[in-house]
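ok trying again, last paste got cut off:
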Amino acid sequence: MLQTLKKVGMQKFLAFGALIIIYVFFAFTGKNFTSTATTLNILASSYYVGFLALGATFVIITGGIDLSLGALMMASALLGGALYRDMGFPLWLCMVIMVLFAMLVGLANGILVTKLKLPPFIATLGTMMIMLGLGSIITNTSSKYFPTILEPDGWFIRVFFKTKSGFPVGAVYLMVFFIITFIVLNKTKIGRYIFAIGNNEEAVRLSGIKVNLWKGMAYVITGLGVGLGSILYSATYIVVIPNTGNGIELQAIAAVVIGGTSLSGGVGSLTGTLIGVFIMSILKNGLISMSLPAPYQTFFTGIVVIGAVLMDVYRNKKANELKKIKA
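nice, full thing came through this time. structure:
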């Protein structure tokens, strides 16, 4: 356990150091990168990715993966937009349905993995494709619009994006969700069992613990993060377009791995995940400040994803070498 804490602590330290270095780099090379507007953009693009990443940390600690994050977030947002614009549902009810829908899909992912024994990669890849198609079916391939600041439900933007004075209220929700998930992961039975499953699932099963229940709970928590993220995304961008969302899950997963959570399971840190989220957001906005077009942003984001996975492979290799020496 001590070695695990040291590993996670060192990774958080390295991630925080990388965050500072990247920020300083863009501060010198980017145009108006240190301006208030850019800072607000960094926060704004962190909102929804942060919710996805914090939720996904639970699944990845179990040794699983969820590739449906981005597509599910967009499908939830499109569902909410369709209910609001086309069917006249109250906006507050649409938001509740968005969250419940994402949690339901998270539950379905959990059942596919635990009961039907599908590999998490395959199960969530299938869910991703289903959500991409479902979003278009729900909306008949048309974009859905959430209320602007001038509409009767203009409170939506002020409550979930930023106030009239420009205060980034979305960051407050992200921090509240971080605190809640931190407590759940580190101070409750749910978190203890999730870590234990990631370390040695068979040993946990033999000890009489209901592995399927707690592993499935990790996917439901991920769904909760996605549902809340869909609300923040809708408030940030207003327009939700079908057949989009691919790639957002990679940003979230990269943030989780950069923050010290191992893709092999058993090791993870929500604090590190949050740092990883801001690294990804600073990278995105920093490249924009350098006037690089979207393809370059995708290119460098891909490099970061590969780097994060290589870093995780290196950590696991060193950990295995240490175990062999002790044995």
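cool. DSSP finds 13 helices and two strands in the chain. The longest strand covers residues 144-145.
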